[in-house]
Design a protein that fits this description.
The longest helix is centred in the last third of the chain and has 22 residues. 43% of the residues lie in helices and 16% in strands. It has a domain of 207 residues: NAD(P)-binding Rossmann-like Domain (Rossmann fold, 3-Layer(aba) Sandwich), CATH 3.40.50. With 336 residues, it is α/β, with parallel strands linked by helices. The strands form four sheets. Strands 3-2-1-4-5-6-11 form a seven-stranded parallel sheet, with helices on both faces. It is globular. Helix 1 crosses helix 7, helix 4 packs parallel to helix 5 and helix 6 packs across helix 10. The chain binds nicotinamide-adenine-dinucleotide and thymidine-5'-diphospho-beta-D-xylose. The site of thymidine-5'-diphospho-beta-D-xylose (TDX) has 16 residues, from helix 6 and strand 8.
C-alpha cells in the first residue's frame, strides 16, 4: 500500500509517520510538506534513511505537485493545515488558503485518480462550544458551529471532503479529534508552552480565569485511532476521537503540570482571554463500539512522558520557542 501523508513534518503528522512505518514495513509513504514555521525536519530525522519513506517539499495548494504524486497513491492521510487558533485570529487568510483551498486541490486530484481512501484529519473545534458543563459532549451528530477562523476553515474543509464523497464517489473518512499533546508539538501550543516556560524559569500565561474545558488526548493514541479508521473504518463515515477524562479545566491542567515540576500556584500568570474562547469535550463511543479503539494513556501518564521529552530535547524546541514567544509579544502589542 502507498500512502501520501500531507503535513508530515508537523506535530501529529510526524508522530503518525513514525508509528505507521514501524507497524507497516511493507508500505511506502510519501510525506508532502511545505515546511511552514510549524514544521521541523528534525522531527523525522530517525526515519529519513528508511527506504520506504520519501519527503517531498511542496505545497498542497500546488496543483502540479499534487498531480505528480497522486497517481502512485492508494491512501491519502491529510494532516497539512494551519493549526493555531491564536494565529487565525491575528491573520485568517492563510487558514482559508491552506485549509480550504489546499484540501480542495487534494480532493480534486484524489478523485481524478480514483484513489482507495482519502482520510481527513479534523478537529472537534468544528462543533463550536459545549458550554461550561463537561457532561455535555460533542458526537458525530452534533451540528457544526465553528467560532474561530481556524475552526471555520476546518469546518469548510470537512464539508468539501463529504461533498466529494457524495458527489464524486470518493471513498472518504473523517476523524474529528480533541486536543492532542505529546512529543514534537510546537511550543506555541499550551502544554509545550507551559513546560518550556517552566524549564526557562518563566510563569505560565493562563487565558481568562483558566476555566475553559479541553479534552486532552496523547498524540500516540490519536495516531492509533487514525490507523484504526484507515484499516477498519467504513467509507463515508466520521469518527469522533477524544481522551479518557473528558473535559479538563485549563487551571486544573496547569496545576497538574506544576505538580510534576514540584512548583506552586505562584507560577501562574492570568492574562487577557482569547476572543470566542470555546469549551470542548468529545463522546468517542462510536469508534470504540464499532472499531474497538480506545485511548491507552491517562492524562497523568501522558503529561509525565511529555515533560520528560521536552526536558531531554531542548535542541528540538529552542528556536521554535523563541519564534513563538515573539509571536505572542506581537499579539499582545496589537491588542493594547
Ligand atoms: P502542525 O501545525 O503542527 O503541523 C502542520 C504541518 O502542515 C506542518 O508541518 C506544516 O509545514 C504543514 N503545512 C502547512 N501548510 C501546508 C501546505 N500548504 N502544504 C503542505 N504542508 C503544509 O499541526 P498539527 O497540530 O500536527 O495538526 C495536524 C492536523 O490535525 C491539522 O489538520 C489539525 O487541524 C488537526 N488536528 C490537530 C489537533 C491538535 O490538537 N493539534 C487536534 C485535532 C485535529
Ligand atoms: O498560553 C496559553 N494560555 C492558555 O490559557 C495558550 C497558548 C493557550 N491557553 C488556553 C487556550 C485553550 O483553552 O489553553 C487551551 C489550549 O490552547 P491551544 O494549545 O492554543 O489549543 P486549542 O486552541 O484548544 O486548539 C488545539 O486543539 C484543537 C489545536 O491547536 C488545534 O489545532 C486543534 O484542532
Amino acid at each position: 500500500m502507498n500512502l501520501l501523508v500531507t503535513g508530515g513534518l508537523g506535530f501529529i503528522g510526524s508522530n503518525f509517520i513514525r508509528l505507521w512505518l514501524s507497524r507497516h514495513p511493507d508500505c511506502r509513504l510519501v510525506n508532502l510538506d511545505n515546511l511552514t514555521y510549524a514544521a521541523n525536519p528534525d522531527s523525522l530525522k530517525d526515519v529519513q534513511s528508511n527506504p520506504n519513506y520519501r519527503f517531498v517539499k511542496g505545497d498542497i495548494c500546488d496543483d502540479k505537485i499534487v498531480q505528480q504524486l497522486m497517481p502512485s497513491t492508494d491512501f491519502v492521510v491529510h494532516f497539512a493545515a494551519e493549526s493555531h487558533v491564536d494565529r487565525s485570529i491575528n491573520d485568517p487568510y492563510l487558514f482559508v488558503k491552506t485549509n480550504v483551498l489546499g484540501t480542495y486541490i487534494l480532493l480534486k486530484s484524489a478523485s481524478k485518480n480514483q484513489i482507495k481512501r482519502f482520510h481527513h484529519v479534523s478537529t472537534d473545534e468544528v462543533f463550536g462550544s459545549i458550554g461550561t458543563e463537561s457532561k455535555n459532549q460533542f458526537s458525530e451528530s452534533t451540528p457544526y458551529d465553528p467560532s474561530s477562523p481556524y475552526s471555520a476553515s476546518k469546518a469548510a474543509s470537512d464539508h468539501f471532503v463529504r461533498s466529494f464523497g457524495k458527489t464524486f464517489g470518493l471513498p472518504i473518512t473523517i476523524t474529528n479529534c480533541s486536543n492532542n499533546y505529546g512529543p514534537y508539538q510546537h511550543p506555541e501550543k499550551f502544554i509545550p508552552r507551559m513546560i518550556t516556560n517552566l524549564i526557562d524559569g518563566h510563569k505560565i500565561p493562563v487565558y481568562g480565569q483558566g476555566l475553559n474545558l479541553r479534552d486532552w488526548l496523547y498524540v500516540e493514541d490519536h495516531c492509533l485511532a487514525i490507523e484504526t479508521v484507515l484499516l477498519k473504518g467504513k467509507v463515508g463515515e466520521t469518527y469522533c476521537v477524544g481522551g479518557l477524562k473528558g473535559g479538563t479545566r485549563n487551571i486544573d491542567l496547569v496545576k497538574q503540570v506544576l505538580s510534576i515540576f514540584g512548583l506552586d500556584d505562584s507560577w501562574i500568570e492570568y492574562v487577557a482571554d482569547r476572543p470566542a474562547h470555546d469549551n470542548y469535550s468529545v463522546d468517542w463511543s462510536k469508534i470504540k463500539t464499532e472499531l474497538g479503539w480506545e485511548p491507552k494513556f491517562t492524562l497523568e501518564s501522558g503529561l509525565k512522558a511529555t515533560v520528560d521529552w521536552y526536558r531531554s530535547n531542548e535542541t528540538w524546541w529552542r528556536l521554535a520557542k523563541k519564534e513563538a514567544e515573539e509571536f505572542y509579544t506581537k499579539l499582545k502589542a496589537l491588542s493594547v
